[in-house]
Amino acid sequence: MRLPSVFLILLLLLACRSLLAQQGDSNANEKWLFQCKILPPAFSVEKTLQTDITASFTLGALFLLSFEEYPGTKPFGYNIQPVFASFEARKYISNLEQKSSENYPNYRMGAYGGMKTSAYYFPNNDEWIFYVGPVIGYQLIAVKKLLLNISIGPGMYIVEGDILFGPAGSVSVGLKLNKNLDREFTW
Amino acid sequence: MNHFKRKITSRFFILVILIFFQLPTYGQYDYNTHLFYDNISYTNPASIASLDGMNGSFYTYSYSGYRDSYCRMAVNMPLKRLNSGIGVHANCDPEYPSYFDLGLVYGHKFEIRQNFSVSVGTDISLIRKEFPTYIYNNGAFYFTDAIPIYLMDIDMGIWFEFHNIIAGIKVKNINSPSKENYIAGQAYIYSLEPYFTIFGNYNTSINEKHILRNSLMIDFLGLNANYFIQNHLVIKNTFIIGYTVQFDKSFYSLYPTIGFSLGKKFDFLLSTRAITTVTHAKIVIESFFNYKF
């Protein structure tokens, strides 16, 4: 898959930033959560703004399962991996996050609701899809540094100038890049 | 006081954003929403007076194959001190011929006895619909430009609550909005005929963790009646699983539904048509998001 150079540069910049943060992450007040998403391949950073509110930015490729028979989106075909960038504002539900946040007090975990906006680029046919809509989701540190995230919500798409409405969901498996001093706990 | 001001300002801001979000789009209104229990202000405008708290919702209906989809947005706010409720909603389908409406809802509740109340409500909407025009040539119709039509539509509703039984009657298009246009000597008439909708709901508590939500809706469209039967099992106030059956004389369809309710703040429901007797039917997916302020 051909990655546009601008995405590649941004991805590298973010990766460098995360590695630097990883070195200096002994600070207990560090509130940036970096993760390298393995499935689908992407890079994500999440910043805690208030106690339960975070902002998350993700950049990478995507395995897109399309509801519409849109050209170039055949499930698991050659052309299904667009490059995408998405931004999420999340409000975590406190009563469900306690289990995770006891172990990682600086990172919000558990169930959340919020707004998501994404831009998808299909390099093979030079097409863009834009998406915006509310989401609910669940993010969890499953084992050691393995992060699981699932989210779904209804939204609005802009495809080739047409406006469409429909649900969108995502499932991802990521690796937490931050280094924690408070990780002596055992699972 | 500052806290109150901040709260009011933020709610107003969200309201403006939601309306602004709607403005660039024009949509097609489909009356067959199968998540009618959750789209409660659509089901009956009088129900708005009985809401527990302010909420904002976003609903989408997608029909595969023709890129046909529409959405509904609503913000509802109960006014407890006045025994009333107000709301604003918008429906849109941007596909040709497009449809868009923007409506205001008001409902008032009369407490008759301790466990018995009657509410009345009205929904006044401004509709903008594109009407396709055509020319007839060599035995065939050719569609040309669409002309926009503006209509004022009024719905009325009555809502009864007796213990945990709810029932409502709505009259849709009570003012019979109609518009006639002449393009190149050809008359185009667009009219919305009145029809009734009956809604009923009864919640059964199976045990402390399981509640069964039973709902019924009937649309009386002229001589034809369209039935919707819905059963949703709510588990631990978090997970929702159930189905809706829609049928009339000629067809039936089954819509399984799953949903989540997170922290009594966020609700999400996903429904899809699994079985139908409609020939050449495409996929239908509905999704519903609700935020309680």
Separation of the first and last Cα atoms of chain B? 19 Å
What is the rounded Rg of chain A? Answer: 17 Å
β-strand percent of chain B reads: over 45%
Low-confidence stretches of chain A: 72-78, 181-187
Topology of this structure?
The complex is a heterodimer of chains A (187) and B (293).
Chain A: H1 5-23, E1 32-39, E2 42-48, E3 53-61, E4 83-92, H2 94-103, E5 110-122, E6 127-143, E7 146-159, E8 162-176
Chain B: H1 2-22, H2 40-43, E1 55-63, E2 68-79, E3 84-93, E4 99-113, E5 116-137, E6 140-162, E7 165-172, E8 178-183, E9 186-191, E10 195-205, E11 210-221, E12 224-235, E13 239-247, E14 252-262, E15 266-272, E16 275-276, E17 284-292
Antiparallel strand pairs in B: 1-2, 1-17, 2-3, 3-4, 4-5, 5-6, 6-7, 7-10, 8-9, 10-11, 11-12, 12-13, 13-14, 14-15, 14-16, 15-17
What do these coordinates show?
- The complex is a heterodimer of chains A (187) and B (293).
- Chain A is built from two helices and eight strands.
- Chain A has helices spanning 5-23, 94-103; strands at 32-39, 42-48, 53-61, 83-92, 110-122, 127-143, 146-159, 162-176.
- In chain A, strands 1-2-3-4-5-6-7-8 form an eight-stranded antiparallel beta barrel.
- The longest helix of chain A has 19 residues, at 5-23.
- The model of chain A is unreliable at 72-78 and 181-187 (pLDDT under 50).
- With 293 residues, chain B is mostly beta strands.
- Chain B has two helices and 17 strands.
- Chain B has a 14-stranded antiparallel barrel with strand order 1-2-3-4-5-6-7-10-11-12-13-14-15-17. A two-stranded antiparallel ribbon of chain B has the order 8-9.
- Chains A and B meet through helix 2, strand 5, strand 6, strand 7 and strand 8 of A and strand 1, strand 2, strand 15 and strand 17 of B.
